[in-house]
C-alpha cells in the first residue's frame, strides 16, 4: 500500500527525503525498511544519505540536492547550445560550502560570493535554477580552461555582461573578460579601463601563459 502512495506522491517531486517518507508511514523505522525495499527493486534511486529520487536525470535533480544553488558554467552553456563540448559533470554554484556528489554523473557544487545572475526555467515539468549565459561564462573562469567556453562569448548580452563584471568588482575578472570580449570584436576598453591596474594576471588561471598583453594586463 505504502509503495504505491510513495511512487505516486514523489513522482511529482525531483527529490524526496527519508523524513518525507516518514510523514506518510508515521514511523521513521518503517520508512527506512520501505525505502530499502524500493531501492532493491530499483524503483527508487539513492542520491545521498536519506535523500532519494524517482528520476534518472542528474541535470533535473542537481539544484535540489543543495539549496540554494543554480546550474552554471559549462553545464548551463551546453544546455543553451553555446559550446560544442559536452560536459561529463554537472557544475552548480551555491553560497554554501562546496560539495561533490555522484548520481549517474558527478555533480559539483562550487561556493560563490556572487549569488546572482540565474533564472528559473521549466525543465521536464519542473522548475530549476540555471545561470544566464553571461554569469555562466564568468563562473567558468578558473573552473575549466577558457578554450572550452569562449565560443559562447559570441552570443552574450554585452550590457548584462558589463553590469555583472562591475557588480563583482574584481580587477582580475574585469581584465580577463575585457581581453576576451575585445578578442571577439567588442569595443569595451573604456567601459572597463578603470579596473586595469599595473599587476599582470593570467588570462586563464588553469592553462597559464607566457605572452604579456599590456593593454589589459593579462598573460596569455
Description of the molecule:
The chain has 220 residues and is an alpha+beta fold. The protein folds into three domains: 2-55, Arc Repressor Mutant, subunit A (Orthogonal Bundle), CATH 1.10.10.10; 58-141, no CATH class; 157-220, no CATH class. The chain is 39% helix and 22% strand. It has helices at residues 2-10, 18-25, 28-40, 58-65, 73-79, 133-140, 146-149, 158-168, 171-183, 189-192, and strands spanning 16-17, 45-48, 51-53, 69-71, 89-94, 99-103, 105-111, 118-123, 126-131, 201-202, 212-213, 218-219. The strands form four sheets. It has a four-stranded mixed β-sheet. Strand 11 (212-213) and strand 12 form a beta hairpin. Helix 2 packs across helix 3 (28-40). The termini are far apart.
What is the strand and helix layout of this fold?
Blueprint: H1 2-10, E1 16-17, H2 18-25, H3 28-40, E2 45-48, E3 51-53, H4 58-65, E4 69-71, H5 73-79, E5 89-94, E6 99-103, E7 105-111, E8 118-123, E9 126-131, H6 133-140, H7 146-149, H8 158-168, H9 171-183, H10 189-192, E10 201-202, E11 212-213, E12 218-219
Parallel strand pairs: 5-7, 10-12
Antiparallel strand pairs: 1-3, 2-3, 4-5, 6-7, 8-9, 11-12
Helix pairs in contact: 2-3, 5-6
**Count of helical regions:** 10
Percent of residues in β-strands: 15-25%
Q: What is the CA-CA span between the terminal residues?
A: 64 Å
Shape by Cα distribution: elongated
Number of strands: 12
- Give the total of domains: 3
Mean of residue pLDDT?
96
The biggest sheet amounts to: 4 strands, mixed
Helix content: 25-40%
Report the uncertain regions: none
What radius of gyration results from the CA coordinates?
21 Å
Instruction: Give, in spatial order, the strands making up the sheet with the most strands.
Output: 4-5-7-6
Amino acid at each position: 500500500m505504502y509503495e504505491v502512495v510513495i511512487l505516486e506522491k514523489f513522482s511529482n517531486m525531483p527529490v524526496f527525503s527519508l523524513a518525507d517518507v516518514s510523514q506518510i508511514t508515521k514511523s521513521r523505522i518503517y520508512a527506512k525498511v520501505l525505502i530499502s525495499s524500493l531501492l532493491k527493486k530499483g524503483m527508487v534511486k539513492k542520491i545521498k544519505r536519506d535523500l532519494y529520487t524517482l528520476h534518472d536525470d542528474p541535470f533535473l535533480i542537481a539544484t535540489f540536492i543543495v539549496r540554494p544553488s543554480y546550474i552554471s558554467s559549462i553545464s548551463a552553456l551546453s544546455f543553451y547550445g553555446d559550446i560544442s563540448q559536452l560536459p561529463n559533470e554537472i557544475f552548480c554554484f551555491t553560497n554554501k560550502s562546496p560539495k561533490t556528489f555522484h548520481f549517474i554523473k558527478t555533480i559539483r557544487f562550487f561556493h560563490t560570493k556572487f549569488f546572482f545572475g540565474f533564472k528559473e526555467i521549466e525543465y521536464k515539468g519542473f522548475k530549476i535554477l540555471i545561470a544566464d549565459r553571461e554569469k555562466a561564462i564568468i563562473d567558468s573562469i578558473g573552473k575549466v580552461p577558457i578554450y572550452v567556453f569562449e565560443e559562447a562569448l559570441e552570443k552574450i548580452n554585452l550590457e548584462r555582461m558589463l553590469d555583472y563584471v562591475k557588480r563583482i568588482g574584481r580587477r582580475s575578472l574585469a581584465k580577463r573578460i575585457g581581453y576576451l570580449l575585445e578578442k571577439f570584436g567588442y569595443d569595451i576598453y573604456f567601459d572597463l579601463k578603470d579596473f586595469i591596474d599595473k599587476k599582470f594576471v593570467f588570462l586563464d588561471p588553469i592553462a597559464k601563459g607566457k605572452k604579456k598583453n599590456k593593454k589589459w594586463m593579462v598573460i596569455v
